[in-house]
Amino acid sequence: MADTPGPVLFLQYTSGSTSDPKGVIVSHANVIANGSAFAGGEVAVSWLPQHHDMGLISAYLFIMLLGGTTHAMSPADFLQRPSAWLRLISQVRATHSPAPNFALEYCLRTDKLPTDELTGIDLGSLDSLVVGAEPLRANTFARFRQRFAGYGLRPDALAGAYGLAENTLIVSIRGARRWL
């Protein structure tokens, strides 16, 4: 971030879910204002692509702004072995990780994430597993909590979030212990 921020940090395109995609100016001030609502010193893990706002903003810009650290992995690595995501969270004692609802569903599939791949994983450090970027499914949250409770995942770590590009990512978040 520049010492004297200008009016434009980057141009982001909307998803086009309600109309044609359009460019939205995201300013330094937008990112700073939104990021200031979060705790400092986060340790994040993300496999989300940096061209997607949930990945770019919540896993990199907010974390950098607040003096935290992000550990990245590729989306392909997550899709090939979702246990790698959970293992990295465990290894670095991550406090934050963003993911869309489908990632939780993917981790619930025993053909993609067999139980034997979870040995030694501890998710107890996670303060916020922010789930957004697509429709949220209460049933998915319940099943994910149930499957991963034995690996230290606290029920309140799952944080459902809604947002839009025009608002620099998060509009509403529910369930995070520290982030609101």
TrEMBL record:
Tell me which Pfam families the record gives.
Answer: AMP-binding (PF00501)
The protein's superkingdom reads: Bacteria
Q: Which InterPro entries match?
A: AMP-binding_CS (IPR020845), AMP-dep_synth/lig_dom (IPR000873), ANL_N_sf (IPR042099)
* Positions of the AMP-dependent synthetase/ligase domain: 7-173
Which SUPFAM superfamilies does this chain map to?
A: Acetyl-CoA synthetase-like
User: PANTHER family attached here?
Assistant: DISCO-INTERACTING PROTEIN 2, DISCO-INTERACTING PROTEIN 2 DIP2 -RELATED
Describe the family membership recorded for this protein in Swiss-Prot or TrEMBL. Answer: Belongs to the ATP-dependent AMP-binding enzyme family.
Q: What is this protein called?
A: AMP-dependent synthetase/ligase domain-containing protein
UniProt source species: Mycobacterium kansasii
- What lineage is on file? Bacteria, Bacillati, Actinomycetota, Actinomycetes, Mycobacteriales
